[in-house]
Amino acid sequence: MALSRETLLGLYEMMVKIRTFEERVAEIYYEGKQPVFNIAAGPVPGEMHLYSGQEAVAAGVCAHLRPDDPVTSTHRPHGHLIAKGVDLKRMMAEIFGKETGLCHGKGGHMHLFDPELHFGCGGIVGGGIPHAVGAALAIKKRGEDRVAVSFFGEGAANIGAFHESLNLAALWKLPAVFIVEDNLYAISVPKTASTAVRSNAERGAAYGIPAVQVDGQDVVAVYEAAGEAVERARRGEGPTLIEAVCYRFRGHFEGDPEHYLPEGTKEQWKQRDPIALLAKQLKDQGWLTDEDAQAIEERMTALIAEAEAFARESAYPPPEAALTDVFVQAESPREEQSHG
Amino acid sequence: MAERLLTTARAIAEAIAQEMERDERVFIMGEDIGAYGGIFGATQGLLEKFGPERVMDTPISEMGFIGAAVGAATEGMRPIAELMFVDFFGVAMDQIFNHMAKIHYMSGGNVNVPMVLMTAIGGGYSDAAQHSQCLYSLFAHTPGIKVVVPSTPYDAKGLMIQAIRDDDPVMYFFHKGIMGLGWMAPNPRATGPVPEEPYTIPFGQADVKREGSDLTILTLSLMVHRSLDAAEQLAEEGISAEVIDLRTLVPLDRATIIESVKKTHRVLIVDEDYKSFGMSGELIAIIAEEALDYLDAPPKRLAVPDVPIPYSRPLEQAVIPSVEGIVQAARELMAE
Description:
The complex is a heterodimer of chains A (340) and B (336).
Chain A: H1 5-29, H2 55-62, E1 71-72, H3 78-84, H4 88-95, E2 119-120, H5 129-142, E3 148-153, H6 160-171, E4 176-182, E5 185-186, E6 189-190, E7 211-215, H7 219-234, E8 240-245, H8 265-270, H9 274-284, H10 290-313, H11 333-338
Parallel strand pairs in A: 1-2, 1-3, 3-4, 4-8, 7-8
Antiparallel strand pairs in A: 5-6
Helix pairs in contact in A: 1-2, 1-3, 1-9, 1-10, 2-3, 2-7, 4-10, 5-6
Chain B: E1 5-7, H1 8-22, E2 26-30, H2 46-50, E3 55-57, H3 62-74, E4 78-85, H4 93-100, H5 103-106, E5 116-121, H6 136-141, E6 146-148, H7 153-165, E7 170-175, E8 191-193, E9 207-210, E10 215-219, H8 222-236, E11 241-245, E12 248-250, H9 254-264, E13 267-274, H10 279-291, E14 300-304, H11 313-319, H12 323-335
Helix pairs in contact in B: 1-7, 3-4, 8-12, 9-10
């Protein structure tokens, strides 16, 4: 089924938004880290895993989701959260470690939580997959029509949590969609050296789950497969597994020497940049001009500049805030009382 | 009217049933918790009462179902997950200490994880190294987990209801030797008075089980029973031991500990967990920080001497604190 102009332009705009965000974060990340790279220096310290190149997956899947649909993500979460509709200011402020951030500076780039969007992620490979099962279980128990979606990489498909989660989701017929973003490498180890089957979609059969492989550079293919999976889950017909074959343009993390890549492969993949592919399709159909594309880019750049300014201007949390939020409720009622 | 007596196992099952009646967000899942009623009886009768939707037998997928409990909790349910033996937690540790314990903090206080993770602990019946550990100190060491270790049927019910109503993740450790199981060594204290109506016991409130003036015994779980038996014998020798049941390690009732040490000036810690880097060392550190000048003798501790729990009866009895061992340690402490 051909997608409408409105849908395609929406997907295009979302992909540009994610790419622009990621590329700007990369520039900011290297502030204070040159000429000598020091991971702890600059306005954005710590590891940084960017999503450039994989935008079609986040955009194509999240286009089907409502704010109240739970999503669990990974150590590479920006694209998913942006596609879910996050307030870019609060997200950027969290990446800067500021008080105004989504998690008041306690989470950072790998641990972004937005309860309004039912979004969570984390730095442990495969860690979020069982959470989506639990969220889907909660949805089913309440008889709601929400859907829980878990994004994870092909590396995570070899951890026990993936297999346990798929079995549980199928066994309990839960409204869940599992998205394997196969970007070919788990840090440096290629899928061919880690995975006994050619496609993780083959693993759906082991759990009686419908599974499909799609071209993760083709946002239309992702959008269509995800639409079917999400609708199926909303109808209460159980989980689906989608493998989206894609490519990360910036390495595992910033500073990745990438000497494990066979020469020329990245350049080849860049020929199939998901944003350029959709732009061409839109232009061929007469739905996008160069001027339109430039206008979208400028609008996204301005949005992100606004988020960046907000993050830079925001204050750091006071050091004593490190000691709060361990528990919801007071640690020891008696001590609280005796201290007045 | 005579007081109603229940075993600890029945007290826990009743607490869960009453909370499931009160709050439809509460459900329970785990291995053999349905038709079997829990290997240690903590879920007996729940399946019949609430059905398989709310009392869910799970596959042997501990990382999966404990992680699912985390996900359900963040979506507003109040799950209880049982994992049979604490020794089995290794396969699910990531979900426990990286997710359950940290999500509230990492989210800057924006996401709550109101769940209870319950399990059986303890040895004394030759189940050997992989079915006899306590390990509560391991979890108390990790920020973000409340650690509850009851010793009596009354406390077991009140602390379980408190745990279910608490908005934080709570790990609830019941010792097999306090459950009142027909297939364990008889323990008269495993059956006791339990009011029928629901009640709570706040966390962080130790219980002075026996008042004394010569030394303080700090302990919890089954070791409370052994310490009370020891205190009985010590009284016959003219030694007055105060026995304090800590009940929860996180939060810890420091005030009661310090108050007692300031009164008796001598302290013995009885712990069925491993000795090094655990509860006994932590308690002594707190006492050293807050009441060192009040001590008339160096603190003493009885704990598993940093070996896995052995199988053979005389070997196991040699490493788990006994009534005789407690009496002996108290005598030595008084002679200092």
